[in-house]
Write a structure and sequence with these properties.
Length: 146
C-alpha cells in the first residue's frame, strides 16, 4: 500500500472475501526476464489460495511452477468512479498428488477452454493486499473531477 494515496486499505480477510466474489483475475509472472500478465478464471480456496486450471502443456505452467507470482482481481464501476483491487503474492505450484487432482476435477474451477490434459496451479497467499476507492471520493473528502 502507498500511504496517503487516498484509497482505503482492505485488510486480509476483507480482501479474500472480495476475491471470493469474482471469477476472473490476472496472473503476473516472468517471461523472458520481463513481466507478463494473463487473464485467467479461478477459484479461491478456503485458506485463501488461488486455484487455476489450465493445459498441462501450456507456457503458463512452465513459467509459474515453483516461482513466486502475483495474482490480481478487481471490480470497477467507471460511472461511479469506485472499485477495489486485491493482489495475492506467493509461490505457485502444480498440484501433483493424484487424489487431490481427481478431487479438484470435480470441485475446482472449470476451464473456459478445456484441454485434453489439464493441471491445477495453486498460488499460496503469502502476501494479500487490497485497496478500495468508494464513490469517487478520496480519504480526504476531496471529490474527484467528473
Amino acid at each position: 500500500m502507498y500511504r496517503n494515496d487516498g484509497f482505503r486499505e482492505l485488510h486480509r480477510r476483507e480482501s479474500l472475501r472480495r476475491l471470493a466474489g469474482v471469477t476472473v483475475g490476472r496472473i503476473v509472472h516472468t517471461r523472458d526476464a520481463l513481466p507478463a500478465v494473463l487473464p485467467v478464471n479461478y477459484l479461491l480456496e478456503d485458506n485463501g489460495a488461488v486455484l487455476l486450471r489450465t493445459s498441462a502443456s501450456s507456457e503458463l505452467v512452465r513459467a509459474v511452477d515453483g516461482a513466486v507470482v502475483a495474482f490480481e482481481a478487481d471490480e470497477v464501476d467507471t460511472a461511479a468512479h469506485s472499485g477495489w483491487s486485491v493482489v495475492v503474492t506467493g509461490l505457485a505450484s502444480v498440484v501433483t498428488d493424484p487424489d487431490e487432482h481427481e478431487r479438484l476435477v470435480r470441485t475446482g474451477p472449470r476451464s473456459w477452454v478445456p484441454w485434453p490434459v489439464e493441471v491445477f496451479v495453486r498460488i499460496q497467499p503469502d502476501l494479500v493486499t487490497g485497496r478500495e476507492l468508494v464513490g469517487g471520493r478520496t480519504l480526504y473528502g476531496v471529490n474527484l473531477p467528473s
